[in-house]
Amino acid sequence: MIKKNKKIIEEVNTLLVQISKVLNADRSTFYLLNKDTETLESLVAQGVENIIISVPIGSGIVGSMFKSECPIIENNIQESSLFNNSYDEQLQFRTNSTVCVPVFNEAGIAIGALQCINKKEGVFKEKDITILNSFAAAITFIVKNNELYFATEHIKNNFSTLLDVFTAVSSELDLNNLIQLIMNKAAEITNSERSSLFLVDDETGELWTVFAKGLGNKTVRTKKGIVAQVAKSKKALIVNDPYKHFFFDSSIDKKTNFTTKSILSVPVFNADNKVLGVIQTINKVGENFTIDDLNILTGFASQIRIAIENAKLFDQIQGMKNHLNILVQNLDNGIVTIDKSLKIRTTNDTFFKMFGLKPADDLINTHIEDVNNFIKPLFMYCEETIRSGEKIYQDDLEIKINAKKAVTVNLSVLPMQDAKGKVIGAITVFNDISKEKRIQSNLSRYIPQHLVKEVMNKDNLSLLKGSYSKCSILFSDIRNFTTLTEEFGAIQIVELLNKYFEAMISSVHKYDGILDKYIGDAIMTVFGVPYANISDAKNAVSCALDMFTMLSKLNKKNTKLPLLNIGIGISTGNVVSGNIGSEKRFEYTVIGDSVNLAARLETATKTYNVNILICEETYNEVKNDFHCREIDTLLVKGKNIPVKVFTVISDKKEPLTKVQLDFNLKYSKGLSHYKKDEYQKAIQYFREAKELKPKDGATQVFIERLNTFILERV
Q1: If residue 214 lies in a helix (H) or strand (E), which one and from where to where?
Q2: Fewer CB near the last or first residue (10 Å), C or N of the chain?
Q3: What are the DSSP calls for 527-555, one per residue?
Q4: Which residues of 78-111 are buried (b: 16+ CB within 10 A; e: fewer)?
Q5: In Å, what is the CA distance from 527 to each residue of 350, 575, 588, 639?
Q6: Own/partner pairs for 57-66, CB < 8 Å, 24+ apart?
Q7: Angle at 106 between CA 100 and CA 110, to 5 degrees
Q8: What does the alpha-carbon distance between residue 195 and residue 123 come to, in Å, rounded to a whole number?
Q9: 531 exposed, middle or buried (CB, 10 Å; 0-12, 13-18, 19+)?
Q10: Residue 568 located in a structural domain
Q11: What is the pLDDT of the chain when averaged over all its residues?
């Protein structure tokens, strides 16, 4: 237990007054451990004079806190089971609330407690513990070094000096300033004329003066003298008659015109017990150096070690920080850190450039709710990450900078943690993929959409081998396009085609089709590659009907351009899909009978004067969804077996009229008799059908064909 003296009480009391003021508390008390009695005894207690408050370890709020070594906040102390009101009765005082923290020595052992009583306004909070801990660090002149802690019992008037040293070691990281401060205090506290610090040069083995009071900017280097012997032996020396000492080197006195009368030298060790250097004070004023001076200087030597290690560690951390700052500033990704209060703490230059912000737009310490509206979405997940500690990823987040420019980013929000793993904020990382999206968009204009990612992500596209699968193929072609190109100029034709293709491709995308290729004015579209779907055939037919609708709207808008009419053929079946071509140029496409059949069906629409023809397999998959009628059985080029072909009338959501139903019935009966070679009956039904729909092309084809057959039989 430290002996009470006026100086210590004054210094601690000054600090306690400041603590009470900062925490807005009625009183503050500093307790020290008395190992002999296993109690905490008040060194200084505000509002209490000439009374030592003695608290058994483990008893009461303070004693329990000290035993657990964990800070305590108690804002309703009268209801606490730990509270011992005997002290209130003894001191005629009422305690309502308290906050207290343990005080540790250099070895991390609890040796005391710091307590504040009765918050004047409001209640004690966690931040009060943080503040109190910082004051505890200032009081820990007894914590920084055990030897120096016990040496203070023998020093009556130097508490303030020691407190300055310990506070400086805790806060000052500039090694030169710190050493100068400590060495001046060493001379002051040992009442010496001069003080100096020698460090060992590992390369030469010399000791050189980092600081030497009285030598100005001169540096002394030596391998001799008392200081060299102390470094070699690792033992402190008190020499009160140096000129008679065997190891004393008087050459420095001669050079500096100085007379050394007494010397106190103490080795400075690092954490591995290796000698870093020697701390030395010269010429004790009016008397000789004593063991007390040796104990004090030994304490200073330990502080010098802490100072050097702290400064080196700080230099390393500062170097790492500078390195990381340079790295972060030069990253292609934008980076912003957010603290727990949701305020921006750091940004890098890339972030400003990425979103068109000027460096003058200082965002530091800005709450994320107060940033520019257009970048607010960038920070929408920060609060959730800080709360949950979970990483959050958001792809393809589009930020509109202005009416003409937008930036697309992949966003990563990562929890920022302290050394103990506690979340203290969030790190937001922005990867600008605008260029990638632009490339992807442009590529999709030239190659099928599903291949864009393969093209962008694979190194060797030859690995995209062919596969055998079922799909639906749609061919569309503009009727009489050659005639149009002869009648209208090239500029008009290109303008017309661009508008036409834009309208048609919107229908393709609407029904999950893949644009395979343009063939002049024709379009080849695939449904079901690379991933088959049960609705592929239905999507193909729906797309065809939508294309007719889009074309009708386009014709109404293009009053100054020629009207367009198209025919569509759709087939369903197995195809081979994959890369076709050479290593230098690929084309991803589908090949097979079904592809050829779709092209033939589109051509056949001109023969039967219908807008759309589908094969039998397509019909079987869509007959429950669409009104269809069989047109004919064709033997198309490239196939040995005739195929039934159908046309699509409309979606079954729209019921057919009586005229349409009667027409379909007459047509189907005519087709049935035609297949049986009953030409007279067949032509009768086709003529009846024609009366119902005079412009139906397929009916006219059969009437003309049957007239020829009948004449040939006559």
Answers
A1: none
A2: C
A3: ESSSS--TTHHHHHHHHHHHHHHHHHHHH
A4: eebeebbeebeeeeeeebebbbbbbbbbbeeebb
A5: 43, 11, 14, 23
A6: 57/33, 59/84, 60/84, 60/87, 61/98, 61/100, 61/115, 62/31, 62/100, 62/113, 62/115, 65/100, 65/101, 65/102, 65/113, 66/31, 66/33, 66/40, 66/102, 66/110, 66/112, 66/113
A7: 35
A8: 49
A9: exposed
A10: yes
A11: 81
Q: Which domain holds residue 99?
A: 6-143
* 519 plus 632 within the same structural domain: yes
Q: Do residues 136 and 228 share a domain?
A: no
Give the residue from 207, 210, 206, 138 showing the smallest Cα distance to 180: 210
Residue 290 DSSP code: -
- Please give the helix or strand (H or E) that residue 608 lies within, else none: helix 593-608
d(CA 568, CA 592): 18
Looking at the fold, whether 126 and 163 belong to one and the same domain comes out as no
Is residue 678 located within the same domain as residue 618? Answer: no
In a domain, 327, yes or no: no
Q: Hey, what are 674's tokens?
A: 């035609």
In the numeric block, the tokens 């100029």 are attached to 489
Q: Are residues 175 and 300 in the same domain?
A: yes
Task: Tell me the per-residue pLDDT of 135-192, one tens digit each, with 9 for 90 and over.
Answer: 887 777 544 533 333 343 443 334 444 445 445 444 444 566 667 777 777 777 788 8
Examine residue 571 and state whether it is found in any structural domain, yes or no. yes
Q: Give the pair of three-digit tokens for residue 117.
A: 């009583």
Contact yes or no for 36/75 (Cβ under 8 A): no
DSSP states along 44-65: EETT--S---EEETTSHHHHHH
Helix, strand, coil percent content, the chain, rounded in steps of 5: 45, 25, 30
| Residues 6 or more apart in contact with residue 642 via CB below 8 angstroms | 633, 634, 635
Q: Which two tokens stand for residue 128?
A: 């009060």
C-beta separation of 476 from 602 below 8 A:
yes
Strand extents, DSSP E, 163-308? 192-200, 207-212, 221-222, 237-239, 263-269, 275-284
With beta carbons less than 8 A apart as the criterion, state whether 514 and 526 touch.
Answer: yes
Give the integer Cα–Cα distance in Å for 518 and 525: 9
| Residues 665-697: tens digit of each pLDDT | 999 999 999 999 999 999 999 999 999 999 999
Reduced to 3 states, what is the DSSP secondary structure of residue 475?
Answer: strand
Residue 515 in tokens: 């644009």
Query: What interhelical angle do 593-608 and 697-713 show, nearest 10?
Result: 80
pLDDT average, residue stretch 71-100: 85
Per cent of the chain over pLDDT 70 is 82
Q: Which residue has the tokens 């779907």?
A: 533
Handedness of CA 16, 17, 21, 22 (dihedral sign): negative
DSSP 673-706: HHHTT-HHHHHHHHHHHHHH-TT-HHHHHHHHHH
Residue 452 Cα distances to 193, 470, 543, 576, 582, angstroms:
82, 22, 22, 19, 19
- What pLDDT does 150 receive? 38
Identify the residue whose tokens are 């009368």: 261
Structure tokens at 147: 């030897």
Alpha carbons within 13 A on the beta-carbon side of 194: 19
Closest residue by Cα to residue 237 from 300, 277, 307, 289:
289
Prediction pTM value: 0.46
Residue 455 lies in a domain: no
Paired sense of beta strands 612-615 and 643-651, if any? antiparallel
Phi first, then psi: what are they for 566, rounded to 5°? -125, 160
Asked if 396 and 440 count as a contact pair (C-beta separation under 8 A), the reply is: no
Q: Please name the residues in contact with 91: beta carbons below 8 A apart, sequence gap of 6 or more.
A: 47, 48, 51, 53
- Torsion sign across C-alpha atoms 340, 345, 348, 353: positive
- Other C-beta atoms closer than 10 Å to the C-beta of 316 total 10
Scanning the structure block, which residue is given the tokens 């081998």? 465
What total of structural domains would you count in the chain? 5
